[in-house]
Specification:
Elements lengths: L6 E5 L5 H11 L3 E5 L10 H4 L9 E4 L2 E4 L1 H11 L14 H23 L15 H12 L12 H15 L7 H11 L2 H12 L1
């Protein structure tokens, strides 16, 4: 019987799509990879701009649907494979916090980290949607001090997004998190799906 949940991931191993690949492995999803060569500028070619006019990856295709933007991709995939248990369903007490952490990544963490990487001052607090980088990181660290995962003892797709991203920021020297956050990063990196995704990236 054909799998109507098959996903095409537009991917480059040295990009944000690495985390989506980990999520696909966590979900046990049926997928294939379309490698986008960033060095050749393929993300700006008309064929790819027809998929994502922003010229950014990741993007996914599921049947006739195309999804871009990381938070939307993680939510879409986790809901497409509910049997994996990585997406609290509507009505679940954890649903609100789950959606909050998916949204917080793109709306607060990424712009704050980019400010730090570029050595830019944050806008005045009254005009900034994310306050400042230190505040963002303090919020994350405080949440992770409460349990093993963002939802306490329950791992979700939000952790797949955050675990990888925080690990990469440590590798880039952009953050120096406390022990609890470092333990969280290690916990997510120790999951079998992470190793499978890294093995796939090594061949890409």
């Amino acid at each position: 019987m054909p799998d109507n949940r098959h996903i095409t991931l537009f991917h480059n191993p040295r990009s944000r799509s690495r985390g989506v690949l980990v999520l696909l492995e966590e979900l046990g999803a049926s997928y294939d990879l379309q490698i986008v060569d960033l060095e050749k500028g393929e993300q700006l070619a008309p064929a790819y701009l027809a998929i994502n006019p922003m010229g950014k990856i990741p993007a996914i295709r599921h049947g006739d649907s195309v999804v871009t933007e990381q938070g939307a991709i993680y939510q879409y995939l986790a809901e497409l494979y509910p049997e994996a248990g990585l997406s609290p369903a509507p009505g679940d007490a954890d649903r609100g916090a789950y959606l909050r952490w998916l949204a917080f990544y793109g709306s607060a963490f990424e712009p704050a980290i980019i400010d730090r990487a570029m050595k830019r001052e944050a806008p005045p607090r009254s005009m900034s949607p994310y306050a400042d980088c230190d505040t963002v990181l303090q919020v994350i660290d405080a949440q992770l001090a409460k349990g093993d995962y963002l939802l306490g003892q329950r791992c979700s797709a939000a952790d797949v997004l955050w675990g990888g991203a925080l690990g990469w920021m440590v590798d880039f020297g952009l953050i120096d998190p406390p022990a609890g956050t470092r333990a969280y990063i290690a916990r997510m990196a120790d999951r079998p799906a992470f190793a499978r995704a890294e093995a796939t990236n090594a061949k890409a």
